[in-house]
Amino acid sequence: MFFAVSSDSQPRKLIIAVDGPAGAGKSTIASRLARKLGYINLESGAMYRALALKAIEWDVSFDDELALFKLAEGSSIQLQPNLGGNRVLLDKKDVTQRVRERDVTEGASRVSVHPKVRQWMVSHQRELGKDGGIVMEGRDIGTKVFPDADVKIFLDADPVVREQRRMQQQKLRGEVAETSAAELRDRDHRDRTRATSPLEPASDALVLDSTSMSEDEVLRRVEGLVQQKLET
Ligand code: DC
């Protein structure tokens, strides 16, 4: 673990944003980095997944922005950082496994296009990260949730490689394949082209193409940037 000391002798607690498309390696890098720094790792996508699950359970259309917003307002969505990723609680019920299933994955991508839904999510995500000491991963963390984040990483990779990694990750987690390659491409397209907060790197993000980089190499680059920040 490494840290720097600020003028009042307290370790500085940074806000670190890790954005990028599915399968680029965000979760692994974010959780390894958080562990090294003694920070909390939050998977913001799990919040969209929890809302999509609630919409399925309450029979609310993924296209009905206002109904989804009201549903979100009446819900409790909690993320509990864990070694293997976040534990997800929806209205106090553990839905960690359920939110990784295919129907929820598709739903999360669809509910996340709505500005009102995003507004609700962003305000909760800001609240979760406001004290720093956090690595938050998602699609809009460096652009919208924490535009002043101390460190911003945008992790990308070739689509074929991302598809393979996603499948591998699902196998390791013992999950049912949540998605096919074609579905992954559809979701990617929706995330990148939606009108509100499309997936794109912040202008001041370090953009890393991890196609031919090992996990350790990516982590070293990111740690280098964090270290620089802690020394300034
Ligand atoms: O990271 P993930 O696969 O769990 O994300 C699920 C969906 O949520 C994804 O299709 C895009 C959306 N999402 C988003 O729009 N903004 C975020 N900060 C995180 C996820």
Question: Nutshell version of this structure?
Answer:
This protein is an alpha/beta fold.
Q: Secondary-structure map with pairings?
A:
Layout: E1 15-19, H1 26-37, E2 40-43, H2 45-57, H3 65-73, E3 77-82, E4 85-90, E5 93-94, H4 102-111, H5 115-129, E6 134-138, H6 141-145, E7 151-156, H7 159-172, H8 181-193, E8 206-209, H9 215-231
Parallel strand pairs: 1-6, 1-7, 2-6, 7-8
Antiparallel strand pairs: 3-4, 4-5
Structure, explained:
This protein is of the alpha/beta class. It has a single domain, classed as Rossmann fold (3-Layer(aba) Sandwich), CATH 3.40.50.300. It is 47% helix and 16% strand. The chain has helices spanning 26-37, 45-57, 65-73, 102-111, 115-129, 141-145, 159-172, 181-193, 215-231; strands spanning 15-19, 40-43, 77-82, 85-90, 93-94, 134-138, 151-156, 206-209. The strands form 2 sheets. A 5-stranded parallel beta sheet has the order 2-6-1-7-8. The chain has a 3-stranded antiparallel beta sheet with strand order 3-4-5. Strand 3 and strand 4 (85-90) form a beta hairpin. Helix 1 (26-37) packs across helix 9, helix 2 (45-57) crosses helix 4 (102-111) and helix 3 (65-73) runs parallel beside helix 5. The relative contact order is 0.21. Bound molecules: 2'-deoxycytidine-5'-monophosphate.
DSSP strand count: 8
pLDDT averaged residue by residue: 90
Oligomer: single chain
- The helix/strand series, from N terminus to C terminus, equals EHEHHEEEHHEHEHHEH
Attached small molecules: 2'-deoxycytidine-5'-monophosphate
DSSP helical segment count: 9
- Class computed from helices, strands and strand pairing: alpha/beta
Major sheet attributes = 5 strands, parallel
User: Percent helix among the residues?
Assistant: 40-55%
Percentage of β-strand residues: 15-25%
Query: In the CATH classification, which architecture applies?
Result: 3-Layer(aba) Sandwich
Q: Outline, from the CA principal axes?
A: globular
Separation, N- and C-terminal Cα atoms: 18 Å
Order of adjacent strands in the largest pleated sheet:
2-6-1-7-8
